[in-house]
Write the structure tokens for this entry.
Amino acid sequence: DVKVTQSSRYLVKRTGEKVFLECVQDMDHENMFWYRQDPGLGLRLIYFSYDVKMKEKGDIPEGYSVSREKKERFSLILESASTNQTSMYLCASSPGAGSTDTQYFGPGTRLTVL
Amino acid sequence: GIQVEQSPPDLILQEGANSTLRCNFSDSVNNLQWFHQNPWGQLINLFYIPSGTKQNGRLSATTVATERYSLLYISSSQTTDSGVYFCAVSPPTDSWGKLQFGAGTQVVVTP
């Protein structure tokens, strides 16, 4: 079974702090994704990566950056956290077969910025 | 980009009832997936179904690609079916399988 893990289930940070969210997958998947989920909006793509050190912006990249130094690990970075970044953050991975891929999700991190 | 609309936004069912969830999309797709998010936040892939019909136990799904909609059927619902159901699609022009999600249908199954 594919396993995608995220470093924290719940996280509370203060405005202006630098925040790191970590995601690890154990199935040698090529693609990894970061989404945020807000009520009534579904999931929105922040960034994705299709290879080590390769990344592409998603629909809402402002205020975020990412890092993928190893194939299995994809980090989401909030350079200076703000209250409007309070949200549920979900990481996913997919094999890399292209547009027909199935995505597998981690358990999510609920981030609160005070 | 492609638009995804799900209906109804909320659904309350009594245990044992059947229901149908709908997903409309605005353009052609070659990837359509249904997910269930349980009350603890975990998303589980239910179906990969860009066209045709599939069944998995009490759940089944049908996608009519030419008419740009997909249906998810829940039969003999159980309390464990509660959660949010998402439809997500990807157009043929996308090379990476990036998914566009609908807003979801919140389902509550009461005993």
Notes: Chain A is about 0% helix and 55% strand. Chain A touches chain B through 30 residues (CB under 8 Å).
